Structures are given as C-alpha cells and as structure tokens.
Amino acid sequence: MIRVILAEDQAMVRGALSALLKLESDLDVIGCAADGEEAWTLAARELPDVVVTDIEMPRLTGLELAQRIRDRGLACKVVILTTFARPGYLRRALEAGVSGYLLKDAPADQLAEALRKVHRGGRAIDPQLALEAWSGDDPLNDRERQVLRFAGEGMVAADIAEQLHLSQGTVRNYLSEAIGKLGVSNRIEAYRLARQKGWL
C-alpha cells in the first residue's frame, strides 16, 4: 500500500480528493490536513510515502512544506496539486525537491497514476507546465521575494523589518531592487506581477 497524506485548505476539495484516492486499491489516505503546519506535524509523525499538497495554504505554503520535508530528511515524496498553472511555481517546487506537480483539473486517474510513479522513484510533472517553466527566469532573490510578499499583504516597511529582523532601510532597498528588476513603478505592481508569474 502507498500511504498518503493530503494537505488542502478547502474542506470540500480535501474530502473529494480523499474519497477519490480511497477508491484505488493500492492507495491508503492515512491523514488529511487543512494547512501546511498541520501537514508537517502529520508527516513527521506518520512518515507517509507521499504527501499531496496544495500550494497556497495558511501557516505554511505547499512549497515551504516541501522544503521543510526535504531539509529535515523525511523520506516521503511530495506531489503538488494546484490550480496555479504558473511556470515560476513549478521551478520553485522542483528546487524544493518536489517529485510531482499536477493541476487540479487533471483527470482523477492521472493523480493516482502520478502517485504510483512518484512512489516508484519517478517524477510526475504536467507536460505543458514543464515546457513553459524554463521560458522565463525569476529575477528575484529569496530576500526580495520575502519582502515583496509581505508588502503585497499590506505590511509597511517597519513591520516587515521587525518580522524579518532587518533595518527599515534594508527593507526599502530590497523593495526598490525588486521594483527595478520587474520594471514596474511601485511595490503593489511588483507584487502583482511576481504573483502572476508564480515567483512569490
């Protein structure tokens, strides 16, 4: 049996996915989580074969969850299942050690087959996204990405500085660099463009 944990913040989607996967004789859904932190706790305790996670979730994103699973040395594979067909997300997912990246509108049997493939040590990546992923490079570094994400959520420089243990001047420099690299005129436009490209 392939032991699976599902991480999805929308209860209806989580329930539907669980029900679908339980129809497969070789897949066992051993736990479901409504956010990334809960998924991490479950994964660390249950040591599943595969964690299936959405990208955008409260407390810990799917990408951060994948990174933590890799950094802490858990043996489980991670498959991202998302509505976001953004090449930047796929690139960052692969950098975080993800083994699969599928879109939610894919057929249900494709997900089950992807989990089997990943469990055997392969990769399962949406082919169209794979082609697009290498067509545009992400110009932002990790700090610029962090600062821009907080700014896009409405935080001012002082709050961002406190959150990241930086000076306000440093935060403003990171924002200025991000705005310049993206060729826009302010932090909100920079945030929107970076999100649209999947760089945040």
Topology:
Elements: E1 2-7, H1 11-22, E2 27-33, H2 36-46, E3 50-53, H3 62-71, E4 77-82, H4 87-95, E5 100-103, H5 108-119, E6 124-125, H6 127-133, H7 142-152, H8 157-164, H9 168-182, H10 187-197
Parallel strand pairs: 1-2, 1-3, 3-4, 4-5, 5-6
By DSSP (H or I, 4+ residues per run), the number of helices equals 10
The run of helices and strands is: EHEHEHEHEHEHHHHH
Percent helix: 40-55%
Mean pLDDT: 88
Strand content: 5-15%
Determine the N-to-C terminus distance: 35 Å
Main sheet summary: 6 strands, parallel
Number of structural units classed as domains: 2
Q: Using the CA coordinates, give the radius of gyration.
A: 18 Å
The CATH superfamily title of the largest domain: Response regulator
What is the name of the CATH architecture of the largest domain? Answer: 3-Layer(aba) Sandwich
Helix/sheet category: alpha/beta
The total of beta strands comes to: 6
> What gross morphology would you assign?
elongated
CATH class of the largest domain: Alpha Beta
* Uncertain ranges: none
Provide structural commentary:
The structure is a single chain. The chain contains 10 helices and 6 strands, in the order E-H-E-H-E-H-E-H-E-H-E-H-H-H-H-H. By secondary structure, the protein is α/β, with parallel strands linked by helices. The chain has 2 domains: 2-133, Response regulator (Rossmann fold), CATH 3.40.50.2300; 142-197, Winged helix-like DNA-binding domain superfamily/Winged helix DNA-binding domain (Arc Repressor Mutant, subunit A, Orthogonal Bundle). It has a 6-stranded parallel beta sheet with strand order 2-1-3-4-5-6, with helices on both faces. The mean pLDDT is 88.
